[in-house]
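[Discussion] Sanity-checking designs against the backbone

I'm trying to build intuition for which residues belong where. Below is a structure token string of 192 positions. I'd appreciate it if someone posts a full sequence so I can compare it with mine line by line.
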């Protein structure tokens, strides 16, 4: 018996699948992979610009709540394990590669659900963007620095940890993924 996930989201052709369904799936996958590629390119271009124009720890005031900075994150989200001595670079590289393989497969088998496909594409693009940094530099380049005095009790000097386009894609993808799961859990059909 197939799980609910597979029966609702699988686009793997069955024995009676027509060639037109396979073609539609192929076009749909290309659409999502194109979006993924565009996001990876945007992420990498913004990081290359930062690396070219900013020294490490440079900061430029933009507004009273936003700066452009150049910081290096050798760890994971919120600099988790950033000071672990170097082994974390390869640990997070292997973890990212495994995540990319799993998410790519999930995307390929979930094309019938547009919201889920969007979520997976966003997360995939972010994972690829940050993986490129980790392999190229040994760290992830972050540059978006939002801050406010009201955040002092949560973050040092009210500065939310700096992030980048890839991190934003992962975050939005995770939100869309939760939205999709909650929608399906409460019986609402996912829009196609």
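Best answer:
Here's mine. Compare freely.
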């Amino acid at each position: 018996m197939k799980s609910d996930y597979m029966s609702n989201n699988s686009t793997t052709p069955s024995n009676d699948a027509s060639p037109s369904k396979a073609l539609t799936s192929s076009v749909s996958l290309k659409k999502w992979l194109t979006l993924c590629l565009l996001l990876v390119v945007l992420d990498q271009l913004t990081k290359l610009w930062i690396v070219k124009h900013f020294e490490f720890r440079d900061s430029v005031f933009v507004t009273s709540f936003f700066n452009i900075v150049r910081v290096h994150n050798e760890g994971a989200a919120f600099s988790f394990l950033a000071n672990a001595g170097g082994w974390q670079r390869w640990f997070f590289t292997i973890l990212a590669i495994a995540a990319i393989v799993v998410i790519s497969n999930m995307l390929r088998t979930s094309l019938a659900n547009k919201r889920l496909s969007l979520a997976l594409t966003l997360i995939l693009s972010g994972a690829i963007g940050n993986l490129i940094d980790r392999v190229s530099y040994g760290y992830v380049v972050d540059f978006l620095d939002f801050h406010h005095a009201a955040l002092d009790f949560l973050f040092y000097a009210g500065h939310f940890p700096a992030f980048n386009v890839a991190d934003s894609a992962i975050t939005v993808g995770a939100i869309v993924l939760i939205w999709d799961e909650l929608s399906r859990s409460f019986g609402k059909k996912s829009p196609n």
